[in-house]
From TrEMBL:
Organism annotation: Parahalioglobus pacificus
Protein family (similarity comment): Belongs to the class II fructose-bisphosphate aldolase family.
Lineage: Bacteria, Pseudomonadati, Pseudomonadota, Gammaproteobacteria, Cellvibrionales
Catalytic activity line of the entry: beta-D-fructose 1,6-bisphosphate = D-glyceraldehyde 3-phosphate + dihydroxyacetone phosphate
UniProt cross-references to PANTHER family, sorted A to Z: D-TAGATOSE-1,6-BISPHOSPHATE ALDOLASE, D-TAGATOSE-1,6-BISPHOSPHATE ALDOLASE SUBUNIT GATY-RELATED
Name this polypeptide is given: Fructose-1,6-bisphosphate aldolase
Origin: domain of life: Bacteria
Keywords carried by this UniProt record: Glycolysis, Lyase, Metal-binding, Zinc
EC number: 4.1.2.13
Pathway assigned in UniProt: Carbohydrate degradation; glycolysis; D-glyceraldehyde 3-phosphate and glycerone phosphate from D-glucose: step 4/4
One BP annotation, GO: glycolytic process
Cofactor: record remark: Binds 2 Zn(2+) ions per subunit. One is catalytic and the other provides a structural contribution. One is catalytic and the other provides a structural contribution.
SUPFAM superfamilies in the cross-refs: Aldolase
Entries under PROSITE patterns matching the protein: ALDOLASE_CLASS_II_1 (PS00602), ALDOLASE_CLASS_II_2 (PS00806)
Amino acid sequence: ALISLRQLLDHAAEHDYGVPAFNVNNLEQTRAIMEAADATDSPVIMQASAGARKYAGAPFLRALMEAAMTEFPHVPVVVHQDHGTSPAVCQRSIQLGFSSVMMDGSLGEDGKTPMDFDYNVSVTRQAVGMAHACGVSVEGELGCLGSLETGEAGEEDGIGAVGKLSHDQLLTDPEEAAEFVKATGVDALAIACGTSHGAYKFSRPPTGDILAIDRIKEIHARIPNTHLVMHGSSSVPQDWLAVINEFGGEIPETYGVPVEQIQEGIAHGVRKVNIDTDLRLASTGAVRRFLAENPAEFDPRKFLAKTTTAMRDICVARYEAFNTAGKA
Ligand code: G3H
Ligand code: 13P
Ligand code: NA
Ligand code: ZN
């Protein structure tokens, strides 16, 4: 059944758990997420980016999400638009039946100039006005996602800022967050706390304090009724990197956010945890291994089924680690 992000995250806050938000682009991802949720009795956030809409086409994407709810009617599902770049984009998703939208005004009008607070407030507030009139939730973003180790935004997916970021830009300011929430009325707020998008977050094995947990605590204390969102939360599984590289891939040494750090974030107010890269890596590893081991095989269903299983295992692990399991 379709529920709003606000409904789900209010429940998560009350019961001290986090919810992974997985990106969907195709049937296999959608099925992997739903089968994992079904197996662990978890609620679901599935989110679609502009890239997903371009890849699948809006009608197919919407139909995939609807099919998920038809096949698994007992699973609560939030259908969320990831990184909407304007109120108009949010409006189209609302018309398409999404129950939640992200208005990401954190990169300014040109999509690459961080820290234009007034612009961010103005577009986010417009999105909230529209969405709330339709019972749809809104996630905003304040701050600039980027690795505290490298200062890089992880821009390869086209969503991050361009160039090196200063330490100041890499952490959301708690006072600004309070002002932003008051001015916009967002239900959830994506914050910058040391994560970045994509597979190249950290070049060395991350130590215990790779995220700014203290900053998360300060922000949560300042806006306790706004659900915090952690983008760039893939853990970049080393076992899948090894599989990819064993079977013809060439991915350099790289590390993601340790699950234990995300759990600490959840203990301090993080409720929505965005994960895309981990499912991409698992999917690619499964395809490479299957085709290398079965060179005569040409039925795509054979290797696509392997991607579903690989992604499903990661979803199950995250539902369990974030304490989402059993909360549906
Ligand atoms: O935050 C970005 C997500 O990983 C979506 O990536 O725009 O390539 O679909 P995408
Ligand atoms: P990852 O690239 O770490 O999976 O993050 C995805 C994300 O934040 C989508 O909005
Ligand atoms: Na989002
Ligand atoms: Zn993101």
